[in-house]
Design a protein that fits this description.
By secondary structure, the chain is of the alpha/beta class. It is built from 5 helices and 5 strands.
């Protein structure tokens, strides 16, 4: 009888902030994996990120609301592939909304495969109704709302 390997995945991202698109991917990935780590990461390519501990707390709260027992939020300040190996993951979950995301994720998947051939990248295509949502857009709206509220207080 073959030994069954647990399917353990990591879903890395800045989650700044976590939104419905992320939640949708978490729910869908939860159905495929025995364990899913949602890794809140520091992204060197993104400027002005919120505090990583605050983002981690927001992700933990969102996961708790979902009541998914095999999903755990963790913090990662290093290279995703090394962190995945440390957590005994054999899959990396990523998501794409459009062709630009696909090209970006394809490049990351190739590099990860060069660094560790034992870990597979699984791409989830975003749900049609959530494809326009991005953390960048949400942050921009939040900044504009802050400016409007600041003017209203004067």
């Amino acid at each position: 009888m073959p030994i069954m390997t647990k399917k353990i995945a990591i879903y890395p991202g800045s989650f700044d902030p976590i939104h419905k698109g992320h939640i949708d991917i978490i729910k869908r990935a939860n159905k495929l994996f025995d364990k899913l780590y949602v890794a809140v990461c520091y992204n060197v390519d993104k400027e002005k990120q919120s505090n990583i501990d605050l983002r981690l707390a927001q992700v933990k709260k969102a996961i708790q609301k979902l009541n998914l027992k095999n999903v755990e939020a963790v913090k990662n300040a290093g290279l995703t592939i090394k962190f995945a190996k440390k957590l005994h993951c054999n899959f990396i979950v990523r998501s794409i909304r459009n062709v630009n995301d696909y090209q970006y994720e394809l490049n990351i998947a190739k590099v990860n495969k060069m660094l560790d051939e034992s870990i597979e990248t699984i791409l989830f295509i975003s749900s049609k109704e959530l494809a326009k949502i991005s953390s960048t857009n949400i942050r921009e709206i939040q900044q504009k709302l802050k400016k409007i509220h600041a003017k209203d207080r004067r």
